[in-house]
Every structure is written in structure tokens, then in C-alpha cells.
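go over this:
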Amino acid sequence: MFNSVNELQAQDITTYQYRHVAPDKAAEFIKRETTYWSKIAQKAIDNGKMSFWAMLEKVGGTDMATASNFLFINSWPNVNSDLGNVFDPSKLFPGVPTAKINTEAISTVTGEMYAINDGWQEAANINVDKDYNYVLMNYHNSSNPSEFNRLEKTYGGTVY
């Protein structure tokens, strides 16, 4: 059993964090995330602490005043490694006060989900700036996620 636990912990983990940002704060939220946090995440990716970072904004739909309107997707090669310094803005932006960088004060986390990465693939020859205009996410509650993913890869087309 201990070998199984260690094997599980060593796998890549992706976190999905849903946030609500009031419409009147959205522009400032996006500015802070793209000006500061995306750079901090890129440095973590360059240093091998993260393998993926994305901020997605919900456009349109129901209950826009109170429902989640942003989703962060973060992938970690080893979620058990010391991540304490990964999101320390003072290293990249030493002269900027934390209050001008912080987005937690202008957003509310409405949900969080953790998933073990299981063979995600990206189509060959993707140009991220031109080929990704929107994202559609489907959620499944499978009793056997590995088999579900195998079937999707075999019969469902390319898994991104």
C-alpha cells in the first residue's frame, strides 16, 4: 500500500480553481494577473516547479453577478515539493507593494478541484496565439477514470 501512495504522490497534479470577480473589478483583476502573476507562473514553469498555468474568463452565461467567472488551471510536476517560494512576487517585482499585485482581495474562490494528470496530449503544430480562441470543458464523474481516458483517447478523438 505504501508504494501505491508514493506512486500516486509522484504523479502530476492539476488544480482547477474557480473564482468570482465582481464585474467592476474584472479589469483590475485581469491587469494584475497578466502583468504580475503570469510572469511569476512562467518563472515557476521555467524552473520546473509548474508545468502549466492558465487563466480563463467566462464570457456570457447565467448568474454573472455571483457565479464563478474565472478559472485558473495550474499543473504541478510534484505537488508535494516545496512550493512556498513559487508565488513570491517580491523576487520578480521587488519595488511593487504586495497590495498592488494581490488578486485575492478582489476575488473569491468559489471552488477547487484536483486531478491526476493522465496522459494529456496536445495536437501537433499548435500555435497557441492563433489556434486557441475559446475552451469548452466537459466534466465527467467516472468510477474508473483511467479506463474512461483510455476510451476517450481511442474513440473520442484527440484529447487536449
Observations:
- Residues 118-160 form one domain.
